[in-house]
Amino acid sequence: MKESAIRGIWPAGLREAFDGYEAALAADDGDALADAFESGSDVIRADGSGILVGAEQIARFRSARGGIATRTISHVELRRLSDDTVLIVSESAFDGGGRGYQTQIWRYDDDRWRIAAAHVTPRPKALDTRVWRSVGDPLVRPTGEGPLAGLTVAVKDLFAVTGFPTGCGVPAVAAEAPAALTDAAAVETLRAAGASIVGIAATDEFAYSIAGTNPHYGTPPNTAAPGRLPGGSSSGPASAVGLGQADIGLATDTAGSIRVPASYQGLWGLRTTFGAVDRGGLVPLAPAFDVVGWITRTPQILRLVTAAYLPDPTARPLPRVVAVPDGLSRLLEPGTLIAFDALLESLRTDGLLDDVRTVEIPDPDLIRETFRVVQGGQAWERYGEWIAEHPGALGADVAERFAAAQDLSVAAIEVAGNDLDRLRPLLRDLAAGAPLVLPSCPGPAPRPADVGPQTRTSTLALTTIASVGGLPAISAPLLEVDGLPVGLGVIGAVDDDLTLIDLAASWAPTAAKAVTAPGAAHPQSDR
Amino acid sequence: MKESAIRGIWPAGLREAFDGYEAALAADDGDALADAFESGSDVIRADGSGILVGAEQIARFRSARGGIATRTISHVELRRLSDDTVLIVSESAFDGGGRGYQTQIWRYDDDRWRIAAAHVTPRPKALDTRVWRSVGDPLVRPTGEGPLAGLTVAVKDLFAVTGFPTGCGVPAVAAEAPAALTDAAAVETLRAAGASIVGIAATDEFAYSIAGTNPHYGTPPNTAAPGRLPGGSSSGPASAVGLGQADIGLATDTAGSIRVPASYQGLWGLRTTFGAVDRGGLVPLAPAFDVVGWITRTPQILRLVTAAYLPDPTARPLPRVVAVPDGLSRLLEPGTLIAFDALLESLRTDGLLDDVRTVEIPDPDLIRETFRVVQGGQAWERYGEWIAEHPGALGADVAERFAAAQDLSVAAIEVAGNDLDRLRPLLRDLAAGAPLVLPSCPGPAPRPADVGPQTRTSTLALTTIASVGGLPAISAPLLEVDGLPVGLGVIGAVDDDLTLIDLAASWAPTAAKAVTAPGAAHPQSDR
Fold this sequence. Notes:
Two copies of one chain form a homodimer. By secondary structure, chain A is of the alpha/beta class. Chain A has two domains: about 5-120, Nuclear Transport Factor 2, Chain: A (Roll), CATH 3.10.450; about 130-515, Amidase signature (AS) enzymes (Alpha-Beta Complex), CATH 3.90.1300. Chain A has 14 helices and 18 strands. Chain A has helices at about 15-25, 30-35, 55-65, 170-175, 185-190, 235-240, 260-265, 300-305, 335-350, 365-390, 395-405, 410-435, 455-470, 495-515; strands at about 5, 45, 50-55, 70-80, 85-95, 100-110, 110-120, 130-140, 150-155, 195-200, 250-255, 270, 290-295, 320-325, 355-360, 435-440, 475-480, 485-490. The longest helix of chain A is centred in the last third of the chain and has 26 residues, at about 365-390. The radius of gyration of chain A is 25 Å and the shape is globular. The two termini of chain A are about 40 Å apart. Residues about 515-525 of chain A have low confidence and may be disordered.
């Protein structure tokens, strides 16, 4: 560092501590880095992804990060804040171009200088590849004028967009796929209605996951709960909408791929009635269940975009009776059950519901297993050959899921097909009686470290009810557990799509009241 | 703000000061904002664009910013650093989605709390529209394997890229232009050599400026001198390369549009021999001068990319004699002249040059005026009709330049054409004797507020020598003035393009020594 680039006076020992920290960063020396920060629960590190508090959170972040690009400090501003406290604001120049900025509070204690707080701005990237494959201003223009004029769309990387390959969240696919010659039908509808495409957004590999992770491109951020899973497989459209970088996420839902990220990130998401929206130009996962849908920040925009695809029902009163599937409680985290019951109670108190019935539904485990086997059979039929030709192209989780799909017997797939044929009309009859309400997920978005096999199993038991029924289902951000969002799911009758939006939107004021009520059961967030 | 989202204790009066600052931000109340920060020259504000020091710099930034999006504070961490100093790290949730983070040092003095330092991370955007029109991972794949494999390109928004409109830095053009059906020749060469296109990058409107500003998309950052002009018209490719977001900027140079941003941002830039690189698929400005060229961070990559287009000369010794055009001094800022003379002296001392001659060249004012009139005639011929049909589509600076072009008489254009026919061979003869060396620009990148008509006039007097000569010219980041980069320009004979790169690269170690020498005439940076 040139001495002329330093403004201020180094107290004894601080220059050495500062340089030592830079050396530890360059070496990615976890112990030395931890040692350069104060220990205990008060130490802070902030960047654009969130505020980490306490040595433990910071250490966890560091071990996941795995080093930084080579940099040199190009400018330093030193300010003495007290006898034992110094502020350093510095600029770093990266060998590969670009500059970063870091503010540090150094404190002298126990005969040495350590960092009590840091705020870091890394050098900017051209795009966040966790969220996006391509973006533009816009990437693709509207083709018409209409109700979606001025709105921007993040398109899940499963839909054809003219001129771009469809990557399906798999780099080996993205590298080989030809540029699409026409838009997918669902993209065409949006552009014709005046929306512009801001970009093509991330998906879990072949959409065969509800976690929202991707081992190739990284995991998109959960915009409502930093550090937790974003939910998938429509992770990119959900994060893009949560980040305010798009108004509409154009997505798909097979087993909950719209409803899970909406629930995890406090967004509005609609899975449409099976067969209601044209799937032309969409890469399939399991055609028995795949549907098109959308993720938005507000019910107003969700309604606007849905109405661009589906006929608006003639005005009729909203349902005033809902049904809760029996036997949910074993699938839910305790806090979710409490929040769910409390919301239904408030809706009654506020006069929005006349009755909340309990209904028997077919065994959720049977529903989930029927779904799993039919999905597996169709997914392997579609991708088996490609996977055999591309060993190592998939991450462990999805590869394992395909391996299990490969192992399904023809007989088992046939049985499941028969079960599906039996269950679908049964569930449709149930939903025709009254909308089914249930949490979209067992609880808030988990931290990656806390995910077990049970996470997926319990979630699918909730989400596959609509999938197997071929029914429309909304996830509305109306529940809060430990300060984190959980979606309220409402499953409607066939073609009830727009009614579901209106119904859930009519409940939002009551939900908002419940969340902000003093004395509400919301212990301090553990974010 | 929910009380559960606050961790720590507010000292008396701080909560009110903190809330008052947020209210002032919401109202964009400049006086209240200035009053919330300490006055004087020690106060600091940092973000990803740089470190501002002193109340004056911060106030200037604020008045240029013009308010922020509506946000609410969603989380606060308070830490008492001393009796009168408190650290606040907070998270803000924006109404339109996304979160930002801010670290503030609040200090109690003179009966009130004020901010002594702040570090701000705004909510992330999908892309930096000052720099990019579109980006991808990659946006466009290579078509072949070759020496540029693994390198990424920022394409100036004047070249056809299959599937994208060519926007020319003008929104009204971008909105109407059809998607290109084939790549420009210069794009095709890069992709065939293995490079991938990371994005389409900004240009001044119709490339008719060397400032690097754009009133529609904003001014790209100067990556070497925060707060100063980036240089143009290849501003986007230059900033993208400076930011480390691309390895190669594919650009054009008519009056210095490669050399000026390279000079301002400490990058390597080559204007090629007139006619040497195919201009097919490139939107012209003034066909008598337009050439293709590149901007890079290193001479190695500049050489690689140039060699993908132009035949590599058989090995021959580098020139050991250079010529300095007479009468430069009145065009240069004093510090630039000192640095320039010092470098030539060091090159002699280091044995890299045997002789530095002075040569008479045609009057730079005549060269510049000849250039201006021929360029204006051709630019108006190309764009006059479009401009008449699109009133208000251009910003004031470029609109004024076109208006002046419109006013040129046929007779004046004819005279200038004759002068060009006379000057071009004359300058080619001169350059054939020995490479001409001169600073690329009169001085470092100016701050926007310091730009006057003289800035453009003096710069063009330097840059149009190569333009009028149709000669290759490099700008190499070998000079430093007040801690800021200035390019060393070397103008070669026809087809000397690769020799210029080798020559300037051979001088880099000497230049680096001069810059870091103790006692070198580099007063403290005023950045």
